[in-house]
Structure formats: structure tokens, C-alpha cells
Write a structure and sequence with these properties.
Strand 4 and strand 5 form a beta hairpin. The strands form two sheets. A three-stranded mixed beta sheet has the order 3-4-5. It has a two-stranded antiparallel sheet with strand order 1-2. It has a single domain, classed as CBS-domain (Roll), CATH 3.10.580.10. The protein contains six helices and five strands. It is 35% helix and 16% strand. By secondary structure, the protein is an alpha+beta fold.
């Protein structure tokens, strides 16, 4: 059985999603919500032309704007959260989990030293990683859930 790195020594850069769908500050909120629905994502990083992170639009952001009659005409920069929780690619998974739990968020943005977006680590990424670790460590077939 090939050696699997232990989660305690793994870092964000090893499990992050690299192909991240993003929005620009000048995009319309209507388009951002469409992309979130179309691609089944709960958070949309907002980046400038150099891919530097400017903010994030989340499902919670959309809920806050739900009854604003102008939401379809608003730009992403008018609604995005600027309170960002970011990590570097070298941040340990333990630190990532700590930030997700402490701040009660679904994802952290992985950025370089210039705040350029490199990827995202979501709770789902970590659950998937845990599943892979458990599956490869098990000598037995994973049981099937009962319905």
C-alpha cells in the first residue's frame, strides 16, 4: 500500500481546488448569483484583473440582498464581503480547520504573498480528503449506507 501523508503534516496547497470560478468587482450581482447556481458553488471569490482577492460573495450575501429590489442592478463590489479569511499554500490543514471552525465559514481562500488567488479550501474539500485518507487506510471495502 503506498504511503499516504498524514493530515497533520499536509498543507492547504495539497488539497485546495485550483480551478476557481471568480467574479470581478464590476460584474452584476445577477450574474454572480447565476454563476453560483449554475456551477453549484456557495462562495464566489471576487478578484481584480491580476487575480488579487478583493472580496467574496457567499450564499449568505445573497440572502442578505434577497429583498433589495435593486439587487439585479447592483455590482458585485456593492455587495461583496471584504472580511476575508485567507491562508497561504503552506498553511497546515489543522490551521485551516481551526479557521473554518473559529470563524464559522465554509471556505478559506488560498493566496500568495501578493494576495493573488491560488485556490480555495472548502469544508467539502476537507471531507473528501478525509474520505480518501480513510479509504486508503482501510483493508476492507467501505460499507454501503442503508436506505
Amino acid at each position: 500500500m503506498p504511503h499516504q501523508p498524514h493530515a497533520a503534516t499536509m498543507v492547504a496547497g495539497e488539497v485546495m481546488t485550483r480551478n476557481v470560478i471568480t467574479a470581478k468587482p464590476g460584474d452584476l450581482m445577477a450574474d454572480a448569483v447565476d454563476w453560483m447556481c449554475r456551477y453549484n458553488i456557495s462562495g464566489l471569490p471576487v478578484v481584480d484583473e491580476q487575480r488579487r482577492v478583493q472580496g467574496i460573495i457567499t450564499e449568505f450575501t445573497v440572502l442578505e440582498m434577497l429583498y433589495n429590489p435593486d439587487v439585479g442592478r447592483l455590482q458585485v463590489q456593492d455587495c461583496m464581503s471584504r472580511r476575508l479569511i485567507t491562508v497561504s499554500p503552506q498553511t497546515t490543514l489543522r490551521e485551516v480547520v481551526d479557521r473554518l471552525v473559529l470563524h464559522r465559514i465554509r471556505r478559506v481562500l488560498v493566496v500568495d504573498q501578493n494576495d493573488v488567488l491560488l485556490g480555495v479550501v472548502s469544508r467539502r474539500d476537507l471531507v473528501r480528503h478525509s474520505h480518501e485518507q480513510l479509504s486508503s487506510a482501510s483493508q476492507y471495502a467501505m460499507p454501503q449506507p442503508t436506505v
